[in-house]
């Protein structure tokens, strides 16, 4: 009988270990699925603060700081920024459209305007959302003047969710 008790205890221990492993696996998949749902249009919607930094090749350094809203329909709204291009500081507004993939990558296309409403630039970006969709990093993939002239750029951007701001959209 002692042999049977030891065998039963061993099997019981193996079953407990298997149950724990199964539980942890299911729990981790649930967390992974919940996080994956954040990388969607609705999951990234909200108000964001942004900075850009880099160079427009042949013109000079560019930096900016601003704010914008992403809505759950793929629109960038109410963008406004203060920018410096080679030391010339201007105010600008911008709007556009974005996409986001389940793996937290995405694309953004914007039109940038001066305060009089005149278009000054069209730009596209590749995006990566991280830190549980509290941050987004981007790189300019194209910049084109209204007359069709492309600009070579080496510009990156970082944005963080603006906390404590109620959405009005």
Write the layout of secondary structure elements.
Elements (H helix, E strand, L loop, with lengths): L1 H37 L2 H4 L1 E11 L3 E11 L4 E11 L2 E13 L4 E10 L4 E12 L4 E10 L5 E2 L1 E9 L8
Antiparallel strand pairs: 1-2, 1-9, 2-3, 3-4, 4-5, 5-6, 6-7, 7-8, 7-9
Report the mean per-residue pLDDT as an integer: 84
Query: What's the total count of β strands?
Result: 9
Order of helices and strands: HHEEEEEEEEE
Question: What proportion of the residues form beta strands (DSSP E)?
Answer: over 45%
Structural classification: alpha+beta
User: How is the biggest beta sheet arranged?
Assistant: 8 strands, antiparallel, barrel
Low-pLDDT ranges = 17-36
Can you describe what's shown?
This protein has 169 residues and is an alpha+beta fold. It has a single domain, classed as Porin, CATH 2.40.160.20. It is built from two helices and nine strands; from the N terminus they run H-H-E-E-E-E-E-E-E-E-E. The chain has helices spanning 2-38, 41-44; strands at 46-56, 60-70, 75-85, 88-100, 105-114, 119-130, 135-144, 150-151, 153-161. A hairpin with a 5-residue loop joins strand 7 (135-144) and strand 8. The protein is elongated and about 90 Å long.
């Amino acid at each position: 009988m002692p042999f049977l008790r030891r065998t039963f205890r061993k099997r019981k221990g193996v079953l407990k270990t298997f149950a724990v492993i199964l539980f942890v696996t299911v729990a981790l998949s649930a967390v992974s699925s919940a996080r994956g749902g954040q990388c969607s249009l609705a999951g990234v919607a909200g108000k964001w603060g942004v900075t850009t930094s880099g160079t427009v090749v042949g013109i000079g350094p560019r930096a900016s700081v601003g704010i914008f809203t992403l809505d759950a329909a793929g629109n960038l709204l109410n963008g406004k920024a203060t920018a410096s291009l080679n030391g010339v500081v201007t105010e600008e507004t911008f709007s556009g459209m974005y996409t986001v993939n389940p793996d937290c990558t995405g694309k953004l296309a914007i039109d940038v305007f001066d305060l009089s409403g005149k278009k000054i630039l069209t730009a596209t970006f590749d995006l990566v959302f991280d830190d549980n969709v509290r941050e987004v990093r981007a790189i300019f993939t194209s910049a084109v003047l209204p007359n069709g002239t492309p600009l070579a750029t080496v510009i990156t951007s970082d944005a963080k969710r603006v906390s404590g701001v109620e959405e009005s959209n």
